[in-house]
Design brief:
The chain has 369 residues and is α/β, with parallel strands linked by helices. It contains twelve helices and eleven strands. It has helices spanning 3-6, 72-91, 115-126, 149-157, 172-177, 195-209, 227-236, 256-264, 275-279, 299-305, 313-318, 347-366, and strands at residues 35-38, 41-44, 104-109, 130-134, 162-167, 184-189, 216-220, 243-247, 268-272, 284-287, 324-326. The strands form three sheets. It has a five-stranded parallel beta sheet with strand order 9-8-7-10-11. Strands 4-3-5-6 form a four-stranded parallel beta sheet, with helices on both faces. The two termini are 20 Å apart. The model is unreliable at 3-60 (pLDDT under 50). Pfam families: OTCace (PF00185), OTCace_N (PF02729).
Length: 369
């Protein structure tokens, strides 16, 4: 979101990463006033001044662009609201929530999606909001005619209160956020990041394991192209005494920028080629598919990488009883179907948690805590 317009909007007051371009000294009002739509221009109701004891130094969550923008205080607030959203979702079957009544969310997806797009749309509707959606915008929008992302985003801004963007280019979400005056949520930008997936992943680990400090995490599969594992590595580094194991074929090893970041945060990491050994040590095995769409014409490299590391009964036999298996989905054959019945298979619970996290983000971005 453009900085000048963002400063005028009352948003949830969550801390940002210290390097963010939107870091301010702000007072936290007890209940931030919602934005109003009026002729396409964003206006606001003046909120009552916060009591002195509630004033703290913090920053605004204006957009959700990258996992490292959040600190632990922000994560705790998001997770607290997500727990509230579990109750809201259960109650919505009888008396639908009206928290976001009158708000419109635009989902603009240039790459295929099932869980992310549908969970965002379900989240908005569960909270009483409405949805404008386009699927496969790369082919079925004016992008096919050569329209720039910036022009498309400016146009969609006129129709909506918040934009959820998935794009095939790394950095596209930041470009969009710098273009418009309403919140932008990065729903995946090529091989870059997927911050809302990382949020739901960390939330799932907390719900399943009971703690985030001191865990051992095995990241398996396509670590070079997988935006989910990149974002998860950034986010889990916020916690103490973390150990990460990277298990992947040589052609899709984790990139050096993530390793350098983990080193800068004092996070231990280790590369291994032995999935069974790693599984025996971990609290979480996070499996990912080898992403054929990222290999271009080098199908030979894809075929060489696919199927090298599979979570099956052999992995379950060595996996600790308290541990869980996660996967951002969709899966192909990297987790065998007979694993699904094991209580440690958490990937469908993980997908459901995506609804609660996205409900929480929409609430926090549009009307506050």
């Amino acid at each position: 979101m453009a900085a000048a317009a963002r400063a005028a909007l009352p948003r949830p007051f969550l801390p940002l990463h210290s390097s963010s371009r939107h870091s301010y000294r702000l007072a936290i009002p007890p209940s931030p006033a919602p934005r109003l739509r009026g002729g396409g221009a964003a206006t606001s109701i003046t909120a009552a001044a916060a009591p002195l004891q509630q004033q703290v130094t913090t920053g605004r969550l204006g957009d959700v662009i990258e996992a490292q923008q959040f600190d632990r205080a922000a994560l705790n607030e998001i997770f607290e609201v997500a727990r509230e959203m579990e109750a809201v979702e259960r109650g919505s079957h009888g008396a639908p929530s009206r928290v976001l009544e009158g708000f419109l969310m635009a989902t603009l997806f240039y790459e295929p999606s099932t869980r992310t797009r549908l969970s965002f749309e379900a989240a908005m509707r569960r909270l009483g909001g409405e949805v404008l959606t386009t699927e496969n915008a790369r082919e079925f929008s004016s992008a096919a005619k050569g329209e720039t992302l910036e022009d498309t985003i400016r146009t969609v801004e006129g129709y909506s209160d918040i934009i959820v963007l998935r794009h095939f280019e790394s950095g596209a979400a930041r470009r969009a956020a710098d273009t418009v005056n309403i919140p932008v949520i990065n729903a995946g930008d090529g091989p870059g990041q997927h911050p809302t997936q990382a949020l739901l992943d960390v939330y799932t680990i907390k719900r399943e394991i009971g703690t985030l400090d001191g865990i051992k995490l095995g990241l398996v599969g396509d670590l070079a192209n997988g935006r989910t594992v990149r974002s998860l590595a950034y986010l889990i580094a916020k916690y103490k005494d973390i150990k990460i194991y990277f298990v992947s074929p040589d052609v899709v090893k984790m990139k050096d920028d993530i390793k350098d970041y983990l080193n800068s945060q004092g996070v231990q990491w280790e590369e291994s080629s032995d999935l069974l050994e790693v599984a025996s040590k971990c609290d979480v095995i996070y499996q990912t598919r080898i992403q054929k769409e990222r290999f271009g014409e080098r199908i030979d490299l894809y075929e060489a990488a696919r199927g090298k590391y599979i979570v099956d009964k052999k992995v379950l036999d060595v996996l600790p009883k308290h541990a869980v298996i996660m996967h951002p989905l969709p899966r192909l054959d990297e987790i065998t179907a007979d694993v699904d019945s094991d209580p440690r298979a958490a990937y469908f619970r993980q997908a459901k948690n995506g609804l609660y996290i996205r409900m929480a983000l929409l609430k926090l971005l549009l009307v506050g805590h």
